[in-house]
């Protein structure tokens, strides 16, 4: 029996326990930066592997011997949302796994335990050199004759996916991926816009960069009845908001998705007073790294110029966030083929201007983020969000396909 068949069999055996773990995690969610209890639950469920703590409240667990490894990410944190579902295992602490991280973690644990089980049964992934600098003999990840081989797996239990500073950024900066010679990173995310049972394996950019801006328009205060004696920053800000949308419709390449959204606006203390300043915050998103930074410059210039036209002065600050998340094309195509071989329906159509700090992994190693369809009455980040039965199994199967595909890569990656 080949590697793929052995791992699928072992994975199926782990799913009942993984579903129980998912419910435990869901009932006891932890906010960004406070993930200690969730991390303990997951580490207790991972009976094998070498643990190394990272990024304050996160950890990595290595399963397998020396040499290059495949990384798989699970997010530890929840959102500050009061849950409104009717399940007996609903959260009651004011936090909620409303983005599926409980599902992801349980699926990652199922995969890790399956890999460890096959490895412990006597399978190995021999390196071709003394220090394991190569991955050893390769075979197709599709089940076939011959001895099974199991690539070392690095389980990345990441904190602060929903918060700032980014947990993925801190994991990358810690150097832990380099120390474990991670050749590829694999992730999967539940996605209710994808039909249940279907997996999206889209090559190239799948999530936009996500940067925030803060701006202040300064004018001169005055009486609301005498606007000609003041310099109204509210009018200046209103014109900035309208003009900024032209960056999307008339400056950005129409083939490159771009978003400029103002999320907060603040000005004034009384209805009959023109204030001295108006402030706003929002987000800039783009599906191109080159255009992303040009957008920052064009946005700043536009705000300053429009404010000046209304006799005001603008101060603009752009706060860099996640980069564009681009899937490795070979990983995406080959994992999709492997999923199809296993009977899954695969689509390559899903791209969105949402963001995920998994993009930091993709900036340093070939990476694959898959989107797994789920049944749920509400969307992501909703108080009613609750992926139905089978979600853990679906995500685990997607992660296994990504792991097998990454383990089968022929070329060295630097």
TrEMBL record:
Sequence ranges assigned to domain Peptidase M20 dimerisation in this UniProt record: 212-309
Chain spans, region Disordered: 122-143
GO BP of this protein: diaminopimelate biosynthetic process
An example Gene Ontology molecular-function term: N-acetyldiaminopimelate deacetylase activity
InterPro entries: Amidohydrolase (IPR017439), Bact_exopeptidase_dim_dom (IPR036264), Peptidase_M20 (IPR002933), Peptidase_M20_dimer (IPR011650)
Coiled coil: none
TM region positions: none
Keywords in alphabetical order: Hydrolase
Keyword Hydrolase: yes
PANTHER family for the chain: METALLOPEPTIDASE, PUTATIVE (AFU_ORTHOLOGUE AFUA_6G09600)-RELATED, PEPTIDASE M20 FAMILY MEMBER
Name of protein: N-acyl-L-amino acid amidohydrolase
Organism in which the protein naturally occurs: Nonomuraea cavernae
